[in-house]
Design the sequence.
């Protein structure tokens, strides 16, 4: 008997992966959570039916969520990750020695607990002494923080369910206030093939609030369309002014000094979305 | 009743697309051919169960197969496309006014005929006066051509079935001889997530024959992993020495002057494959 997991990435298109073993299926307080061991991508975290991360390709998302902003900021001491309970972004954040404290604000404690249990390659740094894990509402954490962070990374699910408020204009205003005067934030902003409207809306909202707004892409095989975007809003520093020679050589599998600026060069149809 | 087309991109992973209408299913002399109208990607050409092109995302592959080499060569007059019976690469080739003649050598006349009938947006330039369509074996065409072409583009299927010889070392040697003394060729070389061995093998073979070898990538949602690679072998001109300001503004939806060099900046795990 063969068991396959299928995610409908749109109502009319999906990916399908052969299952080796189903480890967890649970309705948490916030969402449907599954941990599946797949033949092609290894262990896979699924929330509300959507692939969040897999052992085989997780490094792309986690590196590309963390390093472009942390390299652009000259001295990122205080960092906040909103969401990201699997711990992958945190693992990348603490590769930067200037980071004194990395706070994780994840609403669903079950995501953290199961990631620690089943995804140790990803979640293994959540107990690091420079990491402060706070189980709670990231939106509230943002609203209650003023002039506090150098870098904020929004590692949310899609804008349905618990993450919906994290795509509202008011949230970006809150982020602006939670950042120091030279702070930078970055958010995952889905893909341009199926969610062009979302990318456009976030781009407009962030441009109203931050003087420097840049969008970059990364190839993630298990995410819809394989081309994922991130939107960066910055008060002072421009990622495109970072010289390749000044980018530190980090222990990475995707991000490189050469890729830092190249990732911001987008296909014409994506450039056109952002005009 | 819902009908879905599923391509197993590996034995354990695939994509699945809801079908609006099945237009053609036929066993040609060379392969299984299907033309399906899908809800998400529009009409789709499928050969031996593998998606070759779709109306929604075809522009990425066709532009990226054609323009980097044609822009790198300062005066591409004689161009050969091996395979590519859907006509998409030819459509891009003739956007370059210097091209005097674009020869298409496609082994399967049925691909050409059905593409003209069902994919006119893609195949519509096959009757252009500067295009010479030859139904026949591309390998033999290469072997019989000496010092003839400025640019050769290999638009093949995967290295199974009729396209298998197009990934052999002897084929690249034949291409070298079919090119003029300053010629350039480019071939599609699959994806680095599932076919790393193939990319490595082609890279080694081409490096033995051509002094300049470069690999670049493009995001194609319906191709395995969403990250497709192309390998370019050049006798004289280096695509990385092309200045952005000298790239013509073509009528494209993916390729841009800005992307010309950025497409060659690869993730670290792909760089490592090519060492």
Sequence:
């Amino acid at each position: 008997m063969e068991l396959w997991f299928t995610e409908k990435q749109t109502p009319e298109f999906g990916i399908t992966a052969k299952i080796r073993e189903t480890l967890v299926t649970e309705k948490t307080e916030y969402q449907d959570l599954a941990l599946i061991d797949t033949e092609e991508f290894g262990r896979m975290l699924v929330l509300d039916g959507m692939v969040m991360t897999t052992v085989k390709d997780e490094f792309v998302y986690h590196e590309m969520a963390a390093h472009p902003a942390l390299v652009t900021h000259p001295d990122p001491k205080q960092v906040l990750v909103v969401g990201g309970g699997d711990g992958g972004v945190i693992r990348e954040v603490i590769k930067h020695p200037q980071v004194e404290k990395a706070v994780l604000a994840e609403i669903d404690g079950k995501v953290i607990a199961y990631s620690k249990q089943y995804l140790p390659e990803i979640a293994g740094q959540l107990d690091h002494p420079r990491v402060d894990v706070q189980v709670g509402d990231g939106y509230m954490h943002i609203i209650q923080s003023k002039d506090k962070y150098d870098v904020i990374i929004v590692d949310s699910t899609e804008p349905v369910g618990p993450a919906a408020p994290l795509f509202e204009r008011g949230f970006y205003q809150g982020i602006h206030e939670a950042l120091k005067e030279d702070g930078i934030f970055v958010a995952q902003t889905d893909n341009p093939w199926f969610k062009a409207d979302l990318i456009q809306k976030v781009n407009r909202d962030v441009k109203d609030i931050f003087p420097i707004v840049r969008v970059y892409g990364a190839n993630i095989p298990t995410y819809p369309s394989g081309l994922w975007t991130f939107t960066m809003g910055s008060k002072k520093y421009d990622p495109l002014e970072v010289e390749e020679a000044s980018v530190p050589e980090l222990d990475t599998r995707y991000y490189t000094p050469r890729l830092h600026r190249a990732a911001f060069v987008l296909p014409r149809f994506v450039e056109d979305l952002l005009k």
In short: The radius of gyration of chain B is 18 Å. Residues 4-54 of chain B form a domain with the Spermidine Synthase; Chain: A, domain 2 fold (CATH 2.30.140.10). Chain B has a mean pLDDT of 96. The longest helix of chain B spans residues 58-72.
